[in-house]
From TrEMBL:
Protein name: Potassium transporter
Stretches the record annotates as Disordered: 1-24
Species name: Salix udensis
The keyword Transmembrane helix is annotated on this UniProt entry: yes
One Gene Ontology MF term: potassium ion transmembrane transporter activity
GO cellular component: plasma membrane
Role according to the record: Potassium transporter.
Limits of the K+ potassium transporter integral membrane domain: 55-541
Amino acid sequence: MEMTSRVEVEEEGDNNKGSMWDLDQKLDQPMDEEAGRLRNTYREKKFSQLLLLRLAFQSLGVVYGDLGTSPLYVFYNTFPHGIKDPEDVIGALSLIIYSLTLIPLLKYVFIVCRANDNGQGGTFALYSLLCRHANVRTIPNQHRTDEELTTYSRSTFHEQSFAAKTQRWLERYVFRKNALLILVLVGTCMVIGDGILTPAISVLSASGGIKVNHPQLSNDVVTVVAVVILVGLFSMQHYGTDKVGWLFAPIVLLWFLLIGGIGLFNIWKYDTGVLKAFSPVYIYKYLRKGGKDGWTSLGGIMLSITGIEALFADLAHFPVAAIQIAFTVVVFPCLLLAYSGQAAYLMQNTDHVVDAFYRSIPQSIYWPVFIVATAAAVVASQATISATFSIIKQALALGCFPRVKVVHTSKKFLGQIYIPDMNWILMILCICVTAGFQNQSQIGNAYGTAVVIVMLVTTFLMILIMLLVWRCHWILVVLFTGLSLVVECTYFSAVLFKIDQGGWVPLVIAAAFLIIMYVWHYGTLKRYEFEMHSKVSMAWIVGLGPSLGLVRVPGIGLVYTELASGVPHIFSHFITNLPAIHSVVVFVCVKYLPVYTVPEEERFLVKRIGPKNFHMFRCVARYGYKDLHKKDDDFEKKLFESLFLFVRLESMMEGFSDSDEYSLYGQETERSREALLNRNGNMSPSLADPTISSIDSIVQFKSPSQANLTVRSSGQRSSQAEVDEREFLNNCRDAGVVHIMGNTVVRARRDSRFYKKIAVDYIYAFLRKICRENSMILNVPHESLLNVGQIFYV
């Protein structure tokens, strides 16, 4: 019996061997997959940690160079008239310690850096975030289809929430929108001022080390050396930092390790008692004892936190976590050691405050440190110049800066750009400041004024970010605002005493750039309003008939306009003055959105204007503020690809939607594009129930079954029409493409106030004359360009 059972079991086992084996495999497979998943997760985690550390290392060279070179000049600018009491050094050190803790560490690295726009930093990045969460743009060219971009991230809030009330408060009056814009422009102008003052003070301070070992040298020699370095630095900008950028991080890391090590050595050698400066009591004693002189010395102490504006503006290629790791692990401790070491040295050598940094270096390593200091000063200057280029590019995209040439210096990194015109302006102003002052103290006063105003602007913008974007509780907003304003207003009051000692320089520079930027924006706004109010009605166009009352000659006319809807006035001006127009007319609107980039596949929106036999289309090309019109980009080719794809889509959808207006909307995936180009009569499942957005309407398609039925029934009829139209478009394209642009002249009315006449008739007209033509920015071939002139009065 036992044997039989066993045999039966064995036979049963043989019969079911496959199924049992399958079961074992099924049981083992999840375990293997789970183990593999765990291994992959571990590897990815390990890899991501290594990558994060690598990015943190690289961020040192791009982000922290400016902040790291501050020890070169802080103590001299704090005590420009000498140290009267050694105890004052302890008070100044205590102020430096808590300034570094409150502003760079807590405010910027852990709070403000989180307010980036998809990794982009700076005042205009904050402004772009606000523009997406509230209707605060002064140029009203936004449309609901823009919100469907993958990069157009925004949060929604309840109608009765505090964020919604803040939004309505901002949007209620045009005055508030203009005030917000001016605030952003002030911050931008001060960053441009930093791009002038940072190279001046960093390079001049580093070059001053020559005099320590050669006291017989005059200040003129140091100034000449600094000017030569600056000329070389600005002259090399057009090469970009792609090839030498890998050197920046090792140089700055070596610099931080050197100043940290020297500081530790000096604390041990001269006076360990300086560590009592970590007690905030000494801040109170210093300010009470120093009186007005102690208060004004805050302007010098504030230089210890310069570079934070470049830190925020240069975020582009580094995650916030990498920035935080680099600051907390390397930058912050090394800076504390460096300042503490200098303070310890000054406690025993109060008469060496002018060259405190170089005097405190051990003689055996003096020249190596001098070389590294000069290299670090150059890297710090480069970081600020790059930040200046970046923020000007953002201002240019949002219509707040005259059109200038922007050169892409790297194929790998989108953010590495070079602006030739601004580069030479910065160089000339930087040399003027360096040669004109020849004094670190006065340049430091100017630098401090610029930095504290940028900090205040960032604080005010962060209040709105916390309310509208983050939707923080009002108590947290009040806490952040209170702590920030207490520190920054204290420093601001101190720098006001030094306006006549060099602090006026950034104010003059910022005022000049503010006038330029605001007048340019005002002119741009008025041009847009003119086009909006004078656009041609569709009834008039349709009344002209398919020939538009003219001879339709073979070819395609690309009419450039700032309007995303409607027919621009330039077109009526064109057809009333010329007897012929092209067989196909495409109205092209190049529009910048408050996003950092628009993906290539989402760039173009295409729509038909009027009946089919009019052969008129509109194409809206959308860009973000980091996107560039590069010469190797075939704008015309991509535009026609989008146009042909639109015709294909329209033909397939004919009779299947309630509307005959369609657009090729950018969010179509590559799979959708392939499906559209497929010659089958059947529709792809991925396109069964999409929402097609047009410029003026959003049309919801019918159900999948209705769609398939309609497409099959109308397939024969639409296919021939589509082939005919595509062939017609190809023939017109072969006949020639002409780019038609409006050359609009803006004039102030005779009854305008005198300041408006100066702004429009002189400043704006001058800027239009010297800036680059729109055709150059869009890389339009000169031989196929046609300008149409018109004048309007504001």
